[in-house]
Design brief:
Layout (H helix, E strand, L loop, with lengths): L2 H13 L1 H19 L7 H18 L4 H23 L4 H19 L5 H4 L10 H5 L7 E2 L4 E2 L1 H24 L3 H18 L4 H25 L1
Antiparallel strand pairs: 1-2
Helix pairs in contact: 2-8, 2-10, 3-4, 3-5, 3-10, 4-10, 9-10
Amino acid sequence: MDFGNIIDAALSQALGPQAIVFALAAIGLNIHFGYTGLLNFGQSGFMAIAGFGLAVTVVQFDAPFFLGVVVALIMPVLLALVLGVPTLRLRADYLAIVTIASSEILRLILGAVEFKDLFGGSNGLTGFVRPFQDLNPYSGPLDLGIVSWSRSDLWSLTVGWVLVALGCLLVWALMRSPWGRILRSIREDEDAVRSLGKNVFSYKLQALILGGVFGGLAGLFHVLK
């Protein structure tokens, strides 16, 4: 048994791009369920719509990369509005139903043969990552002995973990603000919050949008890593 290979594989997975994707998605879910009590079973839908938002904008419409990033971050906001406006005034289980249904609908649409010319079908879209890699400031790979990363992976890890750190810091600050305290109060007893004159629907929609944007960041990073 080669413990060196085991340690290398473990560290590569624990610190690698896939861990960043899950971390960003989890930050969004923590805002949804951990702080606000929103049952979102469709975070993958927010991830998918952001990733395809970038790919379609750059590949199909030949738009600049940074415009594609902006579109990718707007798409989860629109999805949160579409899902949240009709359901957040109802019982919590309605949001759970529509989020899991929407993610499945998006999966079927994005992979459908009928939309292959637009979304690429089961093969997806390619040719939009180069502008991101062109920003890479590293000149070569990094070898620490027990673990090593290629030049492209090193750039992806740097961007990804910076996003995770900034996301954690932002959520930490927000949840200690009056806004965050209202979200936590909604999780415990939204009727009590409503009796104090707070617009519970508005706060829940804001939380759904913010958590969805983090899901979108996860999807965006997933297609770029």
